[in-house]
Amino acid sequence: SKLTSLGQLEMTWRSRVHFHPLLVRILHKSRLRYYGKPEKKLDMPYQAYFEVADGSGMMSMVLWNSLCPEWYNSMKVGTVLLLEQYAIKTSYPFKTQPTPGDSQMKRFATIEISLNVRDPPTKISIIPEEMVKPEWGLPEVKYRFITRSELDDLPNNHSCDVIGLVTFVGRAERARKREHGEDFWLYRWAHAIDGTSDQPFILELFATSQPDVFEHIHPMTYLVCTQMRVVRDLTENPSSTIYLTTSNESQIFITGWHKGQPYTKDTKVKNFIQWTKTQSEDDQMKKTVIGGYYPFPRPPNNFLEY
Question: Which InterPro entries match (predicted)?
Answer without folding.
Answer: NA-bd_OB-fold, RADX
